[in-house]
Design goal:
Blueprint: E1 2-17, H1 26-30, E2 32-50, E3 54-59, E4 64-69, H2 82-91, E5 97-104, H3 114-130, H4 136-150, H5 158-165, E6 168-173, E7 178-182, H6 187-196, E8 197-201, H7 208-220, H8 224-246, H9 249-264, H10 273-284, E9 289-292, E10 300-304, H11 310-318, E11 323-325, E12 335-342
Parallel strand pairs: 3-5
Antiparallel strand pairs: 1-2, 1-12, 2-5, 2-6, 3-4, 6-7, 8-10, 8-11, 9-10
Helix pairs in contact: 2-4, 3-4, 3-5, 4-5, 8-9, 10-11
């Protein structure tokens, strides 16, 4: 005997330029622009339909488990499995028993868009199971609505669109719509870029919502430095696109440095002494430039270095406690599929 399970995965991302300009009210009033690319680290979801009449939600990363009757309201006594609850509530999933499992290659607070990517993966799994007919733009926007509006988690929308579409994209954000512009890059060019970038975990996760709240406040009170930083990082996103398409990667490294300087103007919480020390050590060892990935305050950083400086840069930041993580880019976005498996064999 066998049973059908549903799986999905969506890729995490690194952001090159424009991060933060996808957050309202800046993008509503001025238009946002972000250049990012997805990497081969994923958020995963598995759904096991059953006839138990119970719904069980399990986080394999955090050991959280929520169980309730399929015909009963979703439990709200704590935030366990908050993202899954938000998706189930918005989609109106009830009446049928199932087990749902989530897993992410990198934890929330990593700066790689893990939480938003998980919402995209959850929607992808339910879309596949229930035959909802949601397109890629639909899933990205719905993921934004669930996380930012329904659950009230502060942030932008680049992560949802990156996870849904995959690949290298220049994404435009406006008051009433988003446009995803894919970049056509050869496999050889992508391999060269992978070899030029060093991705490292700073050893500290952070909650991006608090950093984003300060960024929003700075814009609302018309903080001149903060707005100048946002405008600069948006302009740099376009320059970075040109550098990537032309393969002028050293110029990309220089632009990453400019983007890091601009990004730090957006909020006092984006960097800290540890991050500044890592950045300085990387540059002293030969990195051309680099930046934090995500809102800042911790999580992952990455650096651009010529091939003969790569090891020196990695050694320098590892000596300060950072963990270098090998990665590759992926051109594939959200995937969802069904699988028939023997009973008791997952």
């Amino acid at each position: 005997m066998s049973k059908t399970i549903i799986r999905s995965r969506a890729p995490l991302r690194i952001s090159f330029g424009g991060g933060g300009t996808d957050v309202a009210p800046y993008c509503v009033e001025r238009g946002g622009l972000v250049l990012n690319a997805t990497i081969n680290r994923y958020a995963y979801v598995t759904i096991e339909p059953n006839d138990s009449g119970r719904i069980k939600l399990v986080s394999l990363d955090f050991g959280q488990e929520v169980v309730y009757d399929a015909d009963s309201p979703i439990p709200t006594e704590n935030d366990d499995m908050k993202l899954a609850k938000g998706v189930i509530r918005r989609l109106g999933i009830s009446g049928e028993g199932f087990n749902l499992y989530t897993h992410t290659d990198c934890p929330p607070g990593s700066g790689l868009g893990a939480s938003s990517t998980m919402v995209v993966a959850l929607l992808g799994a339910f879309n596949e199971w229930q035959g909802l007919g949601l397109g890629t733009y639909d899933i990205a926007q719905l993921a934004y609505d669930i996380e930012r509006i329904d659950l009230g988690i502060k942030g932008g929308s680049q992560d949802q669109y990156a996870a849904a579409f995959g690949g290298f994209n220049l994404i435009e954000f406006y008051a009433d719509h988003v446009l995803v512009n894919p970049l056509r890059i050869s496999d050889a060019a992508i391999a060269e870029l992978e070899y030029s970038l060093i991705l490292a975990f700073t050893g500290k996760s952070r909650f991006s919502s608090s950093i984003i709240e300060t960024q929003i406040r700075n814009y609302e009170v018309q903080n001149a430095d903060a707005i100048a930083g946002m405008d600069a990082t948006k302009a740099l996103a376009t320059e970075m696109k040109v550098a990537i398409l032309k393969g002028t990667y050293r110029r990309l490294g220089e632009l990453l440095h400019e983007a890091w300087v601009a990004k730090k103007k957006m909020s006092d919480h984006i960097s800290n002494p540890q991050i500044d020390l890592l950045y300085e050590a990387a540059c002293e060892a030969g990195a051309v430039g680099g930046k934090i990935s995500g809102a800042g305050g911790g999580g992952f950083m990455y650096f651009f270095a010529a091939f003969d400086k790569r090891k020196a840069v990695a050694d320098a930041i590892q000596a300060l406690g950072a963990e270098v993580v090998h990665f590759g880019f992926t051109q594939t976005g959200l995937q969802a599929w069904k699988r028939n498996i023997p009973i008791n064999n997952k």
